[in-house]
Amino acid sequence: MQQTVFVVLMLVAGSCFGVISPLMKLSYAHGFTAQQVTDAQYGFAVVLLWALGVWQAHRLRLPLRQWLLLAVLGASGAGTSLCYYLSLTRLPASLGIIMLFQFAWMVMVIDILVTHRLPATQKWLGLLMIVLGTILAVGILGERLPRFPMWAVGLGLLGGLFYALTLYLSGYVDEATPPVTRSAVTVTFSGLVILPFFPPSFLWDGSIPRGLWLWGGLVALFGQVLPMLCMLLSIPRIGGRMAGVLASVELPVAVLSAHLVLGEPVSWLRWLGVVLILLGICVSEWPGGGRRRTKSKTPALEP
């Protein structure tokens, strides 16, 4: 029963992330920039999380290794937001999420580099399905794609890499510290990393009373507060690899919401690609698929 609760929490986190791309596109349509929404998102999230966690702040006694880990998690979370939101200024929401979702195979590559182990055949099969699904989901076959700048596609992929790091490293967070406090510290580090790139102009440019309070608040809630709390509660219990499988719910939620909310066309071939990506993730991470062949004697850092 307890394990089921953590699985559901991870599904909630993935679903929250899934509605971010339509929210960002809607905020752009209302005249706000990526800088304004990103700054407001982190500003509101930091205030809300510390307001929730201040009563537990006295328990924030972490070893240096955990402080460094939370700092890296904050930096990778900031990298995900920065790259993904900027890519969405030029990419459709349904395509941007496909680029971000390449985290699925990136997590596997990170695991190879950390553990010095080659994946089992099952994982290679899952990777092949993810690649084929991506080709279909992007719309390379059977559709005439509009021209997109390569820098936007590259930023989307870089956002996927940062997201993969976030998922993988979250499995090593110390469970003794209250999740709200951990979330507050992590998001604070993210905000500090964002500051040099996006100075908080929303504090003085008058955009908050013009509606930024709504869009920044929604993106903060669904992009930082709820998913961060759910991830830091669930990932230490279920592991980074299972979290990657469950987080895949983000993909259909994002594509469906882009179709329903933004009216972006999604052909049956692209839906087939989405299904293939999801199946590839499940095949890759399905339990009992055999141990990986050891390439070196370096012990695995299993989350």
Describe the structure.
With 303 residues, the protein is an all-alpha fold. It contains 13 helices and two strands; from the N terminus they run ααααααβαααααααβ. The chain has a two-stranded antiparallel ribbon.
The total count of helices amounts to: 13
Helices and strands, in order, run as HHHHHHEHHHHHHHE
Which strand order do you get reading across the main beta sheet? 1-2
Residues in β-strands, percent? under 5%
- What is the typical, i.e. mean, pLDDT? 79
Report the structural category: mainly alpha
How far do the termini sit from each other?
21 Å
- According to DSSP, the number of beta strands is 2
Percentage of helical residues?
A: over 70%
Q: Radius of gyration in whole Å, from Cα?
A: 19 Å
User: Tell me, what's the shape?
Assistant: globular
Low-confidence stretches: 290-303
Largest sheet: 2 strands, antiparallel
Question: Short summary of the structure?
Answer:
With 303 residues, the protein is mainly alpha-helical.
Considering the chains and any ligands shown, give keywords for the structure.
single chain; 303 residues; mainly alpha; two-stranded antiparallel ribbon; 13 helices; 1% strand; disordered C terminus
Q: What secondary-structure arrangement, pairings included, does this model have?
A:
Blueprint: H1 2-18, H2 20-29, H3 34-53, H4 64-87, H5 93-100, H6 103-115, E1 117-118, H7 121-138, H8 150-170, H9 179-194, H10 208-238, H11 240-246, H12 250-262, H13 268-285, E2 293-294
